[in-house]
Design the sequence.
């Protein structure tokens, strides 16, 4: 059975059984989906060993960085900048950023309000 990957975000949520979500919950989940579950602090620490690409699921780039000392540390500086500003991406194209925590808290608060 072929999957249809040419759907909008709302259609994907409806197909996944989330058709009963209201607009606020859909908006929070859409923002939450942009961010990886990978820890940016772990990325920074692993980058000192040039292993942060393996951690985020990009092994090809990881091997390249290990062999070239992350492009003679120029790549390391660029990666540090991207991690700090929240624009470093994991293997699935999601941002490795502490912003995910903000949206998880918003979703928790939403569920608490809804339960009252």
Sequence:
């Amino acid at each position: 059975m072929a999957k249809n990957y040419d759907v909008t975000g709302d259609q994907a949520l409806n197909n996944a059984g989330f058709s009963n979500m209201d607009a606020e919950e859909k908006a929070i989940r859409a923002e939450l989906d942009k961010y990886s579950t990978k820890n940016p602090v772990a990325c920074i620490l692993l980058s000192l060993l040039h292993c942060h690409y393996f951690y985020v699921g990009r092994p090809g780039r990881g091997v390249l960085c290990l062999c070239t000392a992350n492009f003679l540390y120029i790549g390391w500086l660029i990666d540090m900048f991207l991690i700090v500003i929240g624009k470093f991406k994991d293997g699935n194209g999601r941002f490795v950023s502490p912003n995910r925590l903000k949206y998880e808290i918003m979703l928790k608060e939403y569920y608490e309000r809804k339960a009252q």
Notes: Residues 22-116 form one domain. The chain has seven helices and no strands. The helical segments are 9-15, 23-32, 40-47, 52-55, 59-72, 74-85, 99-115.
